Structure formats: C-alpha cells, structure tokens
Amino acid sequence: MEEQVSGINDTGAGLATRLAALKAAEPGLRARDLARRLEVSEAELLAARIGEGVVRLGEDWHALVNALPELGRVMALTRNEHAVHEKHGTYSDIRLMKAHGLVLDPEIDLRLFFNRWSFAFAVEEEVRSGLRRSLQIFDRAGTAVHKVYTASDSDPALFWSVAERLKAADQTAAIQVREAYREKPNLPDDEIDVDALRTAWDDLKDTHDFRPLLQQHRVGRLQALRLTGPGYASRLPEGAFRRALQLAAERQVPIMIFVGSQGVIQIHGGPVTNLRETGAWFNVLDAGFNLHLHEPGIASTWQVRKPTSDGRVTSIEAYDGQGRQIVQMFGVRKPGVPEREDWRQLVADLMEEMAT
Questions:
Q1: Is the dihedral of CA 59, 182, 86, 38 positive or negative?
Q2: Cα(first)–Cα(last) distance of the chain, in Å?
Q3: How many Cα atoms sit within 13 Å of 187 on the Cβ side?
Q4: pTM for the full model?
Q5: pLDDT for the residue 10
Q6: What pLDDT, in 10s, does the model give residues 15-42?
Q7: Same domain flag for 142 and 60
Q8: Does one domain contain both 280 and 328?
C-alpha cells in the first residue's frame, strides 16, 4: 500500500459556513453530493459540524462494534460508487479479531476490515421525517465505509449514552484526510502465468480463498476473469445483472447479494420481490432490504465459477470501468451444503437468454 498524505482541505469554521450556504440554496442535496460540490470528503463535512449535532468517536473499533447491539433494531448501510446496500436488523453474533471482524446476525451479515477504518462520528441531523441519528465510519480519505441508522422510534438517550462512552478526547472541528488506499499494482497480462493461475483456481476449496489466490499471482480480480476464460468466467451482455435479479424475483430463488466499501462487505441473504427502476438506478425495495444499483456505472458483468469442497459455486458479478467490483450475486448457501439447483437453473437460463 502507498502511504502518501494529501494536503488538508478547507475545514473548520470556513467549511461549516460554505456547507450551511449550500444546504440553504439546495436543501435536497445528500451528504455525498454536498461533499462533492464543496470539494471535500464526507468525513470533513461532519468534522466541520462537531459540537452541532456531531461528536467525533474514538478509534477503538472493537468497542464501537461491540456497542452496536445496544442500539436495538437499526438500518445498516454500506455502499460504493455504484451500489448502495441497506439492511434492517440487529447487530448480534459478533466475532472480532485484531484486524478483522464478522457480524453474523440472520439479517445483518457483515465482514469488517478495521485496517481501513480511520474516522467515526455520532450524528444527529434534521431530515424530512424529523431528527435522524446515526453512527458513521470513514476510511482515511474521508469516504464512508459503513453507516448505522437508528430506528425512528428508538430512544435518543440510549443513542447518546453510547456516543458519550465512545467519544474521542479530541473534538476539534477539523480532520486531516489522506490519499485513499491503493492496492499493489497488478502484473501486466503478458507477465501472468495463466496456466498456473488456472491450476490454482482448480484447486480452490472455499470461495474465501479466492482473494489470497489473486494476491499470490499478483493479478486483479477482473484481470483474472479475462485471462482464465470459459470454464472459469464468461462475460455477459449489458443488462445481465438486472435480468438475474428479475429472474430471482419471478422464481423466488433466495440469493445472496454482496456490496463492499473500502472497509466493509455487507451481505443480503434471502429472496427479493419488489424491483423498481428510478432514473439511472435499478432498485430492490423490500421490507428489511434495499439495493440501489447505478446501472450506467456497470462496465461489465460476468458469470464466475469456482470449485469448493462442496462442489461448484456460481456467481454473477458486475464491475465498473476501473475494474472495481460493484456487486456480487450467489444463490443462498451454507458451508457444507452444495449450491442450490434452482440457482444453477436460473444461471443456466440467464446464459441461454443472454446468448440469443
């Protein structure tokens, strides 16, 4: 990883003044859009409001995650540039290691990567529905990695008692952001030993071993899909991810949908039902689960096959123009159980339909 430090943007009182003026002029702008318009990060916007409904939290990430069950039923949100994943539930069955963590609640299912967490805030803000409270976590560039929103009927005193316990000693209304993490560069295509890559792929026993395989061969995820070819990965026509969602909804095939930020992967497991297009976004709008997929951001979609100790596992994956994964879809499956036949049939039908 490269460790370059960027310059400090306009923060503190000056930024707070510009933020207030922009919100007054265009009250409908979301935090992400406000930050872009002001040419700062979301985290810097929150830091500028410290003392006005915003409290900076300390960097004891284990303590923060362990406090989340106290908030009761919440909405967990993880997003990247082109997908937003929202799940309602509680934080339970938490398992923490030094640099990683798991949340294995039946509804909120997360993979946590603490080495990518840098800032956190407790936030109270006025929205159309009233006061909204959240805990928000950001990477070192000030980009959100995870947000936790309390329910409308939750106890504000409970939220603020958690925030007070996690509160950082430093409540200065400014932070210093740095350049985002950049992975080590991949080898050029002509330096990849594709036969060795295919052999290692064939030897996979668990889908979780795929990322270490890529790192070992210094190959990017999308680069690996391109190079290994049919039998490992097949590129699908435009609109394939949307069509896979539609087939899953029509047939009520339970699926898993993965969306990742720099520091969190969030997973939905179960059926999807209510699909709706809104402008450039294709959405799942179900009770307990929302997915917002920005389809113009999808540059390629792939069917990917991986061997495991339980048999072959198949996914449908979408990538952006920079080769970053946007969203991943599998059939619902537990360790030790083969892939669902209805999911395999769905993928086979999708492939046949997309080929015509």
A1: positive
A2: 44
A3: 15
A4: 0.91
A5: 53
A6: 877 877 877 777 777 777 777 787 788 9
A7: yes
A8: yes
In angstroms, the CA 15 to CA 188 distance is 42
- Residue 291 inside a domain? The answer is yes
Determine, yes or no, domain membership for 102.
no
Average the pLDDT over 92-106 and give the result.
97
Decide if 273 contacts 247 (C-beta within 8 A): no
How many structural domains is the chain composed of? 2
The structure tokens 């699909």 sit at 275
DSSP H or E run through 322: none
Q: d(Cα 111, Cα 258) in Å, to the nearest integer? A: 10
Tokens of 281: 């976004």
Question: What is residue 13's predicted lDDT score, i.e. its pLDDT?
Answer: 64
Element (H, E) at 48: helix 42-48
SS3 39: coil
Please give the residue range of the domain that contains residue 76: 13-92+118-166
Q: How many CB atoms lie within 10 A of CB 149?
A: 19
Would 100 be classed as within a structural domain?
Answer: no
Question: Which tokens is 170 given?
Answer: 């430093």
Separation CA 303–CA 313 (nearest Å): 11
Q: What is the longest distance spanned by two Cα atoms in the chain?
A: 62
Task: Say if residue 124 is in the same domain as residue 205.
Answer: no
Q: In this structure, what is the dihedral angle of CA atoms 237, 259, 74, 123, given to the nearest 10 degrees?
A: -110
Give the pLDDT confidence of 110-142 residue by residue, as tens digits: 999 999 999 999 999 988 778 899 999 999 999
Residue 12: band (very low, low, confident or very high) from pLDDT cuts 50, 70, 90:
low
Q: Give the CATH number, domain containing residue 350.
A: 3.40.1570.10
